[in-house]
Amino acid sequence: MSRYRVASVHKLLRNIVGINTTNITSLARVPAVHGLVRHGFLQPWSFSPLRFCCGNHIPNINPVALQMIDYALGLVRSNKTDESYAEALLVLEQGLYSQSQQGTDAATIETTKGIVLLAISSLLSERGNTDEAMRPLLMIQDLTSSSLGVRVAAMEALVGLNLELGLDDTSSVLADKCLKLLEHEGLETGDECGYKVFSARSKAIKGLVELVHGDIESAKVFFEGCQDENCIGNASLSYGEFLHAKRDFNAAKELYQKAIAESSEKKDFSDPYDFGACNMSLQDVLLAATCALGQLESHLGNFSDAEELMSKALKKAEEHFGTHHPKVGTVLTCIALMYQQKSTAERSSSLLIQEGLYRKAIGLLKAPALETDDAEANLEHVREDVDKRDIVALARGGYGDVLCVQQKRNVEGERMKKWAEVWWRNRRLSLAEALDMSESSSKVMVVDTRICRAL
């Protein structure tokens, strides 16, 4: 992402209140949905708002808007072409525009608008337009009559996107805003159960930020409130990663399995307590929890289970994002690390498999070429434009280890490892500790595929 575009988004972040939501509807006059209604894909606009059965305090939502979201997301995920992506955005923009024409109450209109904006943001994020994906999320902050679940989901996604970009300080500020949002709302929502869920989610996203910062003790303070039935979705996954990093494998495994089971039973925007967007969406939770559980089984030495789980994660990533997406490269890096650990534990060799996985992962992650022996200079040259640095460093460092085992390629391997060590930025453990596959290692690393960071 260019410096200009990053600056543009940061300006929006600094002015988080005062954003005009009409900007995103510039194409709304295109009658993208008329044919869908005519051919029966969508029901007529005269339908009354949908009332969720999970609580009287959840605002109504226009059911046609939900149908349009289902259609748009299904279109993109079935075809994954530029044309289907453009059509899906037009459908969602039309759905957003149409809400201002409804004669229902403000809470219904703004909650429905918020859900459509979450869906728009998710599509933009999946296509790699991270800075553009932030704009709909920022717009939601103006929808003060929308449900608390929509606003928490937007803040959660903003934190997630900034973590993926490596903008950790901004992520911390946004996570604090999410906590303050809950403090401001208090129990005035009239939905005590929902408030507890949203409170757990806001604490968990702050805990994840602290975990990325490498501060286990600070993270513990926030995850202590995520230990009951209110811990769902992203909160369950993040808490599991915290326990995983602390080597509490059994408790972490239960939370991963819980996140997988819950995510598998739902579809996008079906649960008003568990709305999600961008890299915090339902599909991302399912992918990340599956991959994390695979890593955990590898750390336990259950390599057959680990291989099965990571194969599932790879399939999910390819189906959801496409075979050339960087997140596929992130999962491949985890699989390569698993084979490396297996080889160490079983004193076997799978060098060709590991090398092939690392090479493909590095290509998908769009890692900069090793054009110079001066890794510091190489890093400084591209610092502003590179995200997923943790995973790039892991892939290059692991690949370097594989090459160093081969006598004729030792020099190449050492050069690659030196480059990776300069790029590594994790504050809790060194690259050598992250790549240490021995059973005696006191620290364990967890890769979070939602944010493409090493925890």
UniProtKB/TrEMBL annotation:
<dbReference type="InterPro" id="IPR011990">
    <property type="entry name" value="TPR-like_helical_dom_sf"/>
</dbReference>
<dbReference type="GO" id="GO:0005739">
    <property type="term" value="C:mitochondrion"/>
</dbReference>
<dbReference type="Pfam" id="PF13374">
    <property type="entry name" value="TPR_10"/>
</dbReference>
<protein>
    <recommendedName>
        <fullName>MalT-like TPR region domain-containing protein</fullName>
    </recommendedName>
</protein>
